[in-house]
User: What shape does this take?
Amino acid sequence: MSRNRSGHGASANLSATDPGGGATPGPRDGALAIVESPVQLLNVLEWAHNHPAPGTSAPLTLVVLPPTDPMTRGQLRRMAELARDEGIVVRWQEARGGVAGALSSLFALSRRLRRARTLVIGDPFSRYVQLLLALTPARAAHRVTVVDDGTATMEFVAQLARGERFVRWHRRGTGGGARAWLFAPVSRRARRRLTPRADGSRPVEVFSSMPVEAPGGVTVTANEFAWTRARFGPPRLTRGADLVGTSLVETGVVDTDRYLEAVASLARTYGATRYFAHRRESSEKLQQVSAATGLEIVRPDLPLELVARRGPVGRTVLSFPSTVVHTLPLALAGTAVTVAVCDVDPAWLTRTASPRAHSFLTGVTGTAARARRLPAAPPATPEPSA
Assistant: This one.
């Protein structure tokens, strides 16, 4: 979305292999961050703002492991530009180009990690990150920090506290098939690397805007989006409402038709005019949303927290249970924007949805203390009687 570009010192010659550019880090790095999504990268920027390094320390090195879908890659490139503006060394590592590319990336990252004093990760559920943790000696990183990857952080902390295997909340069952069975030893070793030692020799931090209760030995630092508020805004407010899209259909949690009905009902009831698409939403579904509601479909080129902070943004932002019901009130603090969250009715869930899907989504909604809670989408206007 071209109107969302910031123009703050953006690089004009980003390459396909190293959009972030930057120099090779020194022999002993201060911190190494590994991210795979734009939201993770945003939260690394917030973490760096919250943890300023001494002037003599080596700069933070940020390694981006881009997925293959174009929307995510585009947002990651834009976020990489912002990171470079903040003096962060950014390395773009293509790790999904087959077995050879993955092994080469693992080898390069393992060497970097051995030099780092702090490891910052955005997705502890990522098999690539778990493999990297398992292959790296326990003594390599003296401190581990997990930054938010959305609401998944809530599930990660809960599973860490219970000593369970790391499984994403929307995955059905706990077996995971043959691949999960083969990967189990790696996952167990990664979980141990993310568990603090009783003697304090392996500190673990969770830097989060989510309502989490970490187990003993884990330090929780509140992410209040101070960097975002200092860097952008305040936004110009529009009279209408904006509706935030979700990938609950794409992850197999919510039925497509029920989702479209709910979106149409919310748009009609609250006068929404724009629909901010989630980066994982399919083009086919977005066409259905547009046809069913008449909403303007907006594909942001940055995480929604930054897009909303820069504006323009509606005075009311409507969302289903998702990360933004926790993060947008923080990013928009001091403005007149109201963030409202609509519950997901159990009838909307697919037959293949995880048994814990509804309780997890209800927890996301119920703990969003700064958001206005709405009931499940209002009923559609009844058909006139014959």
Remarks:
- The chain has two domains: 2-223, 229-374.
